[in-house]
Amino acid sequence: NEQDVPEAIQDGKANNKKSKTAAAPTFADLNLDSRLVQAINSEKFATPTPVQTKAIPLALAGQDVLARAKTGSGKTLAYLLPLLHAILARHASDGKKVARTTALILVPTKELATQVTGALKTFTAFCAGGIRFENISRKEDPAVTKARLAEKPDVVVATPGQASKWLDQEALQVDGLRHLVIDEADLVLNYGYEDDLQTLSTALPPGVQKIMTSATLRTEIDTLTALFFPDAAKPAILDLS
Ligand code: ADP
Ligand code: MG
Q1: What's the Cα-to-Cα distance from 115 to each of 111, 175, 176, 222, rounded to whole Å?
Q2: What's the rounded mean pLDDT across residues 144-165?
Q3: C-beta of residue 53 within 8 angstroms of C-beta of residue 75
Q4: How many CB atoms are located within 10 Å of the residue 21 CB?
Q5: Is residue 240 over pLDDT 60?
């Protein structure tokens, strides 16, 4: 009975209704694979964040994206969900006949590699073991890393240093790569990984989708463009900061 409710709370209710009808985008609007939506629901994420709302459709459409948004704005899922969606779609069409590393996620630190790998675990939980991923930034016996890479996981998470090292040793194969993510690109560059990025960029086959995220993008944008977008095709730049 609305009459018994104090006015302030009624207002609150009205505002809630308003923001809902103001076409706030939902995860359902993003047309993601139902197994990913299940994982999103199990995390109780109600709506995509602004950077997710903007980046996911572009990434699903295969575009290169450079997304700047502040820390905590949900940039991980902005690239992870479209990446996983694309992998699931390819698995459905090729029947997973060929094991192939199709996505490489580069991060500035081992800690971030662990975090991203945790998110991969959470958001592939309903894919019935269908997506294989490996974090190769941990300290471990090199023979173990080599063996893990030899399985050709769908997704490899690494710092640029580790990725270029294993590329040089021909343990990391990038010839089947379809997606390259550089997460926290500002830090990746600040931590001195430019040479490793150079090594990796020259090894990429043509047509690899590139998604980069950053909390800031100032001079970094020129470096990234020179490294990864030397030709006419430039990434869509999302600036939500
Ligand atoms: P960023 O990389 O932009 O700093 P993260 O991707 O690490 O941000 O996300 C920050 C936090 O927000 C994480 O704990 C993540 O699980 C959570 N999160 C991400 N997307 C959503 C969402 N749509 N709704 C609620 N929480 C979310
Ligand atoms: Mg982040």
Answers
A1: 6, 26, 25, 28
A2: 97
A3: no
A4: 8
A5: yes
76 Cα–ligand 1 center, Å = 7
How far CA 194 is from CA of 117, 143, 161, in Å, comes to 23, 27, 10
Nearest CA to ligand 1 atom 25: 45
Bridge-partner residues for 56, per DSSP? Answer: none
Residue 190: CA count within 13 A, CB half-sphere? 13
Structure tokens at 23: 């076409």
Q: What is the DSSP letter of 29?
A: G
Taking the C-alpha atoms of residue 74 and residue 224, their distance in angstroms, rounded to an integer, is 22
| Single pTM value for the model | 0.90
First to last CA, the chain: 42
H helix count then E strand count, the chain: 10, 7
| 169 pLDDT more than 90 | yes
Q: What is the pLDDT of residue 126?
A: 97
ipTM: 0.99
Counting from 1 in the atom list of ligand 1, the atom nearest the Cα of 184 is 2
For residue 191, give the H/E element and its range: none
Q: Could you identify the residue written with the tokens 């029947």?
A: 95
Spell out which residues line ligand 1, taking CB within 6 angstroms. Answer: 45, 48-49, 52, 69, 71-77
Nearest-atom number in ligand 1 for the CA of 70 is 3
Quickly tell me which residue has 């001079």 as its tokens: 219
Domains observed in the chain = 2-239 (3.40.50.300)
Cα–Cα distance measured from residue 230 to residue 239, given in angstroms and rounded to the nearest whole number = 21
Which of 53-67, 123-137, 226-240 comes out lowest in average pLDDT?
226-240
The one-letter code for the residue type at 150 is: A
